[in-house]
Amino acid sequence: MTSRHHDPVDYYLRLDDEEIHLNPHIGSHIKLSYSGKITCVNCERVTKKSFSQGYCYPCFKKLAQCDLCLVSPERCHFEAGTCRDEEFAKSFCMSQHLVYLANSSGIKVGITRQENLPTRWIDQGAAQALPILAVETRLQSGLVEVACKNHVSDKTHWQRMLKSEPDKVNLLEVRDELLREISADLDTLRDRYGSLAIQPLPTAEVQTFNFPVQQYPAKVASLNFDKTPVVEGMLEGIKGQYLILDIGVINLRKFTSYEVEFTSLDDQNAATSQLPLL
After folding, report:
1. How far is CA 221 from CA 11, 250, 252, in A?
2. How confident is the model at residue 40 (pLDDT cuts 50, 70, 90)?
Protein backbone atom coordinates (compact mmCIF):
# COMPACT_ATOMS: atom_id res chain seq x y z
CA MET A 1 0.00 0.00 0.00
CA THR A 2 1.42 3.35 -1.04
CA SER A 3 0.52 6.83 0.18
CA ARG A 4 0.67 10.44 -0.90
CA HIS A 5 0.78 13.42 1.41
CA HIS A 6 -2.45 15.28 0.79
CA ASP A 7 -5.14 16.45 3.19
CA PRO A 8 -6.22 13.85 4.03
CA VAL A 9 -3.48 11.35 3.13
CA ASP A 10 -4.31 9.42 -0.06
CA TYR A 11 -3.81 5.65 -0.06
CA TYR A 12 -3.39 3.31 -3.01
CA LEU A 13 -3.31 -0.47 -3.27
CA ARG A 14 -0.87 -1.64 -5.92
CA LEU A 15 -2.21 -4.26 -8.29
CA ASP A 16 -0.49 -6.19 -11.04
CA ASP A 17 -0.87 -3.39 -13.57
CA GLU A 18 -2.71 -0.58 -11.80
CA GLU A 19 -3.36 1.15 -8.50
CA ILE A 20 -6.67 1.26 -6.65
CA HIS A 21 -7.35 4.53 -4.85
CA LEU A 22 -8.62 3.32 -1.49
CA ASN A 23 -9.98 6.58 -0.06
CA PRO A 24 -13.20 6.45 -2.13
CA HIS A 25 -13.90 2.99 -0.67
CA ILE A 26 -14.03 4.30 2.91
CA GLY A 27 -17.58 3.77 4.12
CA SER A 28 -18.00 0.82 1.74
CA HIS A 29 -17.87 -2.93 2.27
CA ILE A 30 -14.68 -4.52 0.98
CA LYS A 31 -13.24 -8.01 0.85
CA LEU A 32 -9.59 -9.07 0.85
CA SER A 33 -9.02 -12.71 -0.11
CA TYR A 34 -5.60 -14.30 0.39
CA SER A 35 -4.90 -17.00 -2.22
CA GLY A 36 -2.30 -18.85 -0.14
CA LYS A 37 0.56 -17.80 -2.42
CA ILE A 38 3.59 -15.85 -1.17
CA THR A 39 6.32 -14.75 -3.57
CA CYS A 40 9.70 -13.51 -2.29
CA VAL A 41 10.21 -9.84 -3.16
CA ASN A 42 13.88 -10.46 -3.91
CA CYS A 43 14.28 -13.75 -5.79
CA GLU A 44 10.58 -14.20 -6.71
CA ARG A 45 10.48 -17.81 -5.58
CA VAL A 46 7.23 -19.06 -4.06
CA THR A 47 7.65 -19.53 -0.31
CA LYS A 48 5.44 -21.01 2.39
CA LYS A 49 6.28 -18.25 4.85
CA SER A 50 7.27 -14.60 4.65
CA PHE A 51 10.23 -13.31 6.63
CA SER A 52 11.09 -9.67 7.33
CA GLN A 53 8.05 -8.44 5.40
CA GLY A 54 8.25 -10.29 2.13
CA TYR A 55 11.41 -12.40 1.87
CA CYS A 56 11.90 -16.16 1.63
CA TYR A 57 14.08 -17.71 4.32
CA PRO A 58 17.30 -18.01 2.22
CA CYS A 59 17.10 -14.34 1.22
CA PHE A 60 16.24 -13.36 4.79
CA LYS A 61 19.42 -15.06 6.00
CA LYS A 62 21.79 -13.68 3.37
CA LEU A 63 20.64 -10.15 2.46
CA ALA A 64 22.07 -7.14 4.26
CA GLN A 65 18.68 -5.42 4.23
CA CYS A 66 17.32 -8.26 6.39
CA ASP A 67 20.10 -8.13 8.99
CA LEU A 68 19.38 -7.22 12.60
CA CYS A 69 21.34 -3.99 12.31
CA LEU A 70 18.67 -2.60 9.97
CA VAL A 71 16.24 -2.41 12.88
CA SER A 72 18.96 -1.76 15.47
CA PRO A 73 21.41 0.52 13.63
CA GLU A 74 23.58 0.99 16.70
CA ARG A 75 24.54 -2.68 16.21
CA CYS A 76 26.15 -2.04 12.81
CA HIS A 77 29.08 -4.43 12.32
CA PHE A 78 30.53 -3.01 9.10
CA GLU A 79 33.77 -1.97 10.80
CA ALA A 80 34.19 -5.53 12.10
CA GLY A 81 34.28 -6.78 8.51
CA THR A 82 31.21 -8.98 8.92
CA CYS A 83 28.67 -7.03 6.87
CA ARG A 84 26.61 -9.26 4.57
CA ASP A 85 26.97 -6.89 1.61
CA GLU A 86 29.58 -4.12 1.67
CA GLU A 87 28.25 -2.44 -1.47
CA PHE A 88 24.78 -2.20 0.07
CA ALA A 89 26.31 -0.79 3.25
CA LYS A 90 28.30 1.83 1.36
CA SER A 91 25.25 3.09 -0.52
CA PHE A 92 22.68 2.76 2.26
CA CYS A 93 24.32 2.75 5.68
CA MET A 94 27.14 5.17 4.89
CA SER A 95 24.73 7.85 3.69
CA GLN A 96 23.22 10.71 5.66
CA HIS A 97 20.36 9.87 7.99
CA LEU A 98 17.95 12.13 9.84
CA VAL A 99 16.95 11.84 13.46
CA TYR A 100 13.35 12.95 13.92
CA LEU A 101 10.55 13.37 16.43
CA ALA A 102 7.06 12.14 15.57
CA ASN A 103 3.73 12.28 17.36
CA SER A 104 1.68 9.18 16.60
CA SER A 105 0.65 7.47 19.84
CA GLY A 106 2.72 10.04 21.71
CA ILE A 107 6.17 11.49 21.15
CA LYS A 108 8.76 9.11 19.71
CA VAL A 109 12.23 9.40 18.24
CA GLY A 110 13.29 7.67 15.04
CA ILE A 111 15.80 7.70 12.20
CA THR A 112 15.38 7.56 8.44
CA ARG A 113 16.88 8.81 5.21
CA GLN A 114 15.69 12.00 3.54
CA GLU A 115 14.28 10.14 0.53
CA ASN A 116 11.95 8.18 2.81
CA LEU A 117 10.11 11.30 3.92
CA PRO A 118 7.27 11.96 4.41
CA THR A 119 6.28 8.34 3.69
CA ARG A 120 8.05 7.12 6.81
CA TRP A 121 5.93 9.38 9.00
CA ILE A 122 2.71 8.47 7.22
CA ASP A 123 3.47 4.76 7.66
CA GLN A 124 3.82 5.34 11.40
CA GLY A 125 0.49 7.14 11.61
CA ALA A 126 2.14 10.34 12.81
CA ALA A 127 -0.05 13.41 13.19
CA GLN A 128 3.07 15.60 13.48
CA ALA A 129 6.75 15.12 12.68
CA LEU A 130 9.96 17.13 12.79
CA PRO A 131 13.54 16.28 11.72
CA ILE A 132 15.96 17.47 14.41
CA LEU A 133 19.46 16.28 13.41
CA ALA A 134 21.33 15.32 10.23
CA VAL A 135 23.87 12.56 10.87
CA GLU A 136 26.62 11.25 8.58
CA THR A 137 25.94 7.50 8.81
CA ARG A 138 23.30 5.04 9.91
CA LEU A 139 25.46 3.76 12.77
CA GLN A 140 25.97 7.26 14.13
CA SER A 141 22.27 8.05 13.84
CA GLY A 142 21.52 4.85 15.75
CA LEU A 143 23.85 5.94 18.53
CA VAL A 144 22.10 9.31 18.67
CA GLU A 145 18.77 7.50 18.85
CA VAL A 146 20.04 5.42 21.77
CA ALA A 147 20.90 8.63 23.63
CA CYS A 148 17.44 10.03 22.88
CA LYS A 149 15.71 6.87 24.12
CA ASN A 150 16.72 7.75 27.66
CA HIS A 151 14.29 10.67 27.42
CA VAL A 152 11.62 9.79 24.81
CA SER A 153 10.24 6.53 23.46
CA ASP A 154 11.45 4.97 20.22
CA LYS A 155 8.25 2.93 19.76
CA THR A 156 4.86 3.58 18.24
CA HIS A 157 2.12 2.02 20.35
CA TRP A 158 0.06 0.87 17.39
CA GLN A 159 -3.11 0.05 19.31
CA ARG A 160 -3.21 3.50 20.89
CA MET A 161 -2.41 5.08 17.51
CA LEU A 162 -5.40 3.34 15.93
CA LYS A 163 -7.89 4.38 18.61
CA SER A 164 -7.71 8.15 18.21
CA GLU A 165 -5.74 11.16 17.11
CA PRO A 166 -2.95 12.12 19.55
CA ASP A 167 -3.05 15.42 21.37
CA LYS A 168 -1.17 18.11 19.49
CA VAL A 169 2.19 19.04 21.01
CA ASN A 170 4.76 21.75 20.36
CA LEU A 171 7.46 19.67 18.70
CA LEU A 172 9.83 22.63 18.50
CA GLU A 173 9.80 22.94 22.28
CA VAL A 174 10.18 19.16 22.66
CA ARG A 175 13.15 19.25 20.27
CA ASP A 176 14.89 22.05 22.13
CA GLU A 177 14.46 20.33 25.48
CA LEU A 178 15.64 16.99 24.12
CA LEU A 179 18.75 18.49 22.52
CA ARG A 180 19.64 20.08 25.85
CA GLU A 181 19.20 16.75 27.62
CA ILE A 182 21.45 14.84 25.20
CA SER A 183 24.03 17.58 24.64
CA ALA A 184 26.74 15.70 26.56
CA ASP A 185 26.05 12.54 24.54
CA LEU A 186 26.28 14.50 21.29
CA ASP A 187 29.58 16.04 22.37
CA THR A 188 30.96 12.56 23.04
CA LEU A 189 29.85 11.32 19.62
CA ARG A 190 31.32 14.38 17.88
CA ASP A 191 34.63 13.80 19.65
CA ARG A 192 34.56 10.25 18.31
CA TYR A 193 33.35 10.85 14.74
CA GLY A 194 34.17 14.49 14.06
CA SER A 195 32.57 17.86 14.73
CA LEU A 196 30.55 17.77 11.49
CA ALA A 197 29.19 14.25 11.95
CA ILE A 198 26.04 15.46 13.70
CA GLN A 199 24.39 18.69 12.57
CA PRO A 200 21.33 20.41 14.08
CA LEU A 201 18.42 21.41 11.84
CA PRO A 202 17.20 24.64 13.47
CA THR A 203 15.12 25.78 10.48
CA ALA A 204 13.26 22.50 9.96
CA GLU A 205 9.49 22.86 10.04
CA VAL A 206 6.87 20.67 11.65
CA GLN A 207 4.86 18.63 9.16
CA THR A 208 1.29 17.60 9.93
CA PHE A 209 -0.79 14.70 8.64
CA ASN A 210 -4.52 14.12 8.51
CA PHE A 211 -5.64 10.53 7.99
CA PRO A 212 -8.83 9.41 6.23
CA VAL A 213 -10.69 7.88 9.17
CA GLN A 214 -14.46 8.04 9.53
CA GLN A 215 -14.56 6.21 12.83
CA TYR A 216 -11.90 4.97 15.22
CA PRO A 217 -12.45 1.58 16.90
CA ALA A 218 -13.23 1.50 20.61
CA LYS A 219 -11.28 -1.75 20.82
CA VAL A 220 -8.50 -2.78 18.43
CA ALA A 221 -8.67 -6.36 17.15
CA SER A 222 -5.87 -7.43 14.82
CA LEU A 223 -6.71 -9.43 11.67
CA ASN A 224 -4.29 -11.90 10.10
CA PHE A 225 -4.39 -13.47 6.62
CA ASP A 226 -2.58 -16.58 7.91
CA LYS A 227 -5.43 -17.25 10.32
CA THR A 228 -8.28 -15.64 8.38
CA PRO A 229 -7.65 -15.83 4.61
CA VAL A 230 -10.80 -13.85 3.80
CA VAL A 231 -11.20 -10.49 5.53
CA GLU A 232 -14.52 -8.79 4.84
CA GLY A 233 -16.16 -5.75 6.39
CA MET A 234 -16.85 -2.05 6.17
CA LEU A 235 -13.75 0.06 5.60
CA GLU A 236 -13.96 2.79 8.25
CA GLY A 237 -10.57 4.37 7.71
CA ILE A 238 -6.89 4.03 6.90
CA LYS A 239 -4.02 5.09 9.14
CA GLY A 240 -0.36 4.24 8.97
CA GLN A 241 -0.27 0.94 7.08
CA TYR A 242 -3.51 -0.24 8.67
CA LEU A 243 -6.93 -0.69 7.15
CA ILE A 244 -9.53 0.00 9.84
CA LEU A 245 -12.59 -2.21 9.35
CA ASP A 246 -15.70 -2.59 11.46
CA ILE A 247 -14.49 -6.12 12.32
CA GLY A 248 -10.89 -5.23 13.18
CA VAL A 249 -7.68 -3.80 11.73
CA ILE A 250 -5.13 -5.31 9.37
CA ASN A 251 -1.54 -4.20 8.84
CA LEU A 252 -0.95 -4.56 5.09
CA ARG A 253 2.79 -3.97 5.46
CA LYS A 254 3.01 -7.19 7.47
CA PHE A 255 1.65 -9.15 4.52
CA THR A 256 3.96 -7.86 1.84
CA SER A 257 4.34 -10.49 -0.93
CA TYR A 258 1.01 -12.16 -0.18
CA GLU A 259 -1.19 -12.58 -3.25
CA VAL A 260 -4.51 -10.96 -2.39
CA GLU A 261 -7.70 -10.31 -4.28
CA PHE A 262 -9.38 -7.00 -3.48
CA THR A 263 -13.14 -6.67 -4.00
CA SER A 264 -15.35 -3.67 -3.37
CA LEU A 265 -18.67 -5.31 -2.54
CA ASP A 266 -20.51 -2.14 -3.49
CA ASP A 267 -19.37 -2.21 -7.13
CA GLN A 268 -18.16 -5.84 -7.43
CA ASN A 269 -14.87 -4.78 -9.05
CA ALA A 270 -12.11 -7.22 -8.18
CA ALA A 271 -8.42 -7.42 -8.91
CA THR A 272 -5.53 -9.60 -7.79
CA SER A 273 -2.62 -7.95 -6.03
CA GLN A 274 0.71 -9.04 -4.61
CA LEU A 275 1.23 -6.53 -1.85
CA PRO A 276 4.61 -4.88 -2.57
CA LEU A 277 7.44 -4.02 -0.23
CA LEU A 278 7.30 -0.30 0.57
Report:
1. 22, 9, 14
2. very high
Q: Quick one: the chain helix, strand, coil %, rounded to 5?
A: 25, 30, 40
pTM of the prediction?
0.91
> Mind listing the pLDDT tens digit for each residue in 10-19?
999 987 777 8
What are the residue boundaries of the structural domains of the chain, listed by start? 2-52+212-274, 57-208
* Residue 66 per-residue DSSP state: G
Q: Per residue, what are the HEC states of 200-266? A: ECCCCCCEECCCCECCCCCCCCECCCCCCCEEEEEEEEEECCEEEECCEEEEHHHHCCEEEEEEECC
Where b means 16+ CB within 10 Å and e means fewer, 111-131 reads bbeeeebbebbbbbbbbbbbb
Measured between its terminal Cα atoms, the distance across the chain in Å is 7
| Amino acid code (one letter) for 114 | Q
C-alpha angle 59-64-68 in degrees, rounded to nearest 5:
100
Helix (H) or strand (E) run with residue 123 in it = helix 119-123
HEC string of 68-118 equals HHHCCHHHCCCCCCCCCCHHHHHHHHCCCEEEEEEECCCEEEEEECHHHCC
**What are the tens digits of pLDDT across the range 249-261?**
999 999 999 999 9
- In this structure, the number of other CB atoms found within 10 A of the CB of residue 191 comes to 10
| Closest of 115, 124, 121 to residue 95, by C-alpha | 115
* DSSP-derived secondary structure letter, 275: P
